[in-house]
Specification:
With about 375 residues, the protein is an alpha/beta fold. The protein is about 45% helix and about 15% strand. It folds into 3 domains: about 40 residues, no CATH class; about 130 residues, Rossmann fold, CATH 3.40.50; about 130 residues, Rossmann fold (3-Layer(aba) Sandwich), CATH 3.40.50.2300. Strands 2-1-3-4-5-11 form a 6-stranded parallel beta sheet, with helices on both faces. The N terminus is likely disordered.
Length: about 375
């Protein structure tokens, strides 16, 4: 068939010859150490240590150390270093739920902050199986499995966890908390200002019958948004009756269904011509229910949300919203937490501005 065949008699001696050429013993090259990296990079051992532990160094020194680490194939022994320093090289991210693009943006910000710190993140969802369960976070605190904690939208229910973490000396940061607590870092948005901006915009369009659907009644973000919205309407000569302020069970789309049906069951001449919902997910769920019922948005009703979720730009009509810099907030919170872990930052509060994003879901009311 044209295929060359090598006889076993010929192949075996070749195999023995090949083995004979190999050295009987090989001398292992010593694994690079932190001193090796320092020498290769032309910096001190302390500088390498700070780079490995996410400490403060110049960008040039960090670049030299990272280049040396890559060239030498250096792998820091995290576990051994953790035993020596009593640090885990991890931070804990505590959320109520991982659903939705808001969480995705938040996680992206945390990952960006950890990118150069050589630390990783542990995630705990307090409602992973539906019921509230804080046992994972309790174990982190009791066993010092993390060097610090990031709490997202923490509420009164998390008070016990925050007290326990504070008693154990764990640095903490709160992102968009529902109530103020004594921690190292707090990051929040000016949600009252966001409510004011939406009220001004809708009033300028000519609307005079408004409704506001908030998230859970206990949510501080919701309360701030309603406060800013109603205050600005009153300044413009309008009002928002309590009967048109509603609170949904959650910030997720399905919680808007009963509020959409309530709007649909209202006589047409009394229906609010502008409805604001406390999250983009709620607003999109509201719009979907109305469209299914044959209502046109924005011809029959203008709808707006909060958060600036990417989905709001992809749907039709595009959703008008008050956007918050979620990714940047999470990145700042995590960076500040890392500084607290390293002992280089004092307690601090960050307050971010919001942005009004106008799309096709809002228009002048009919016959105006």
């Amino acid at each position: 068939m044209g295929t060359k065949r090598i006889s076993h008699a010929f192949a075996r001696p070749c195999a023995r010859l090949d083995m004979a050429r190999r050295p009987l013993l090989s001398v292992a090259t010593p694994a690079p150490t932190i001193r090796t990296v320092a020498s290769h990079a032309g910096v001190g051992v302390g500088t390498v240590s700070r780079v490995l532990n996410g400490g403060s160094v110049s960008s040039l020194a960090r670049e030299k150390v990272n280049h040396a680490i890559k060239e030498l194939g250096f792998f820091p022994m995290t576990a051994a270093r953790g035993l020596a320093t009593r640090k885990s090289s991890t931070v804990g991210l505590v959320v109520n739920s991982t659903r939705g693009s808001w969480f995705s943006e938040l996680l992206a910000g945390v990952e960006q902050a950890l990118g150069t710190s050589r630390r990783s993140v542990l995630l705990a969802s307090l409602r992973l199986m539906g019921d509230y369960d804080s046992s994972v976070v309790e174990a982190w605190i009791q066993e010092r499995r993390v060097d610090g904690l990031l709490f997202v939208r923490s509420s009164r229910r998390e008070r016990a966890l925050i007290r326990a973490a504070r008693s154990s000396g764990l640095p903490m940061a709160l992102i968009a908390p529902d109530e103020h607590m004594p921690v190292d870092v707090t990051v929040e948005c000016d949600h009252e200002r966001g409510g004011e901006m939406l009220a001004s915009y809708l009033a300028e369009l000519g609307h005079d019958r408004f409704a506001f659907v908030g998230g859970p009644r206990v949510s501080r973000d919701t309360r701030d948004r309603i406060r800013g919205f109603t205050r600005r309407l009153e300044q413009l000569g309008h009002s928002l009756p309590n009967s048109r302020i509603r609170f949904a069970e959650s910030y997720f789309a399905e919680s808007a269904r009963p509020e959409a049906h309530r709007w649909l069951s209202t006589p047409e001449r009394k229906r609010p011509t502008a409805v604001v919902l406390a999250s983009d997910a709620l607003a999109l769920g509201f719009i979907r229910e109305l469209l299914d019922a044959g209502i046109r948005v924005p011809d029959d009703v203008s709808v707006a949300g909060f958060d600036g979720a990417p989905e709001g730009e992809l749907c039709w009509p595009g959703l008008s919203t008050v956007a918050q810099p979620t990714r940047h907030m999470a990145k700042s919170a995590c960076e500040a937490l890392l500084s607290c872990i390293d002992g280089t930052r004092v307690p601090q509060t960050f307050r971010y501005d919001v942005e009004l994003v106008l799309r096709a879901s809002c228009a002048r009311p009919r016959n105006r």
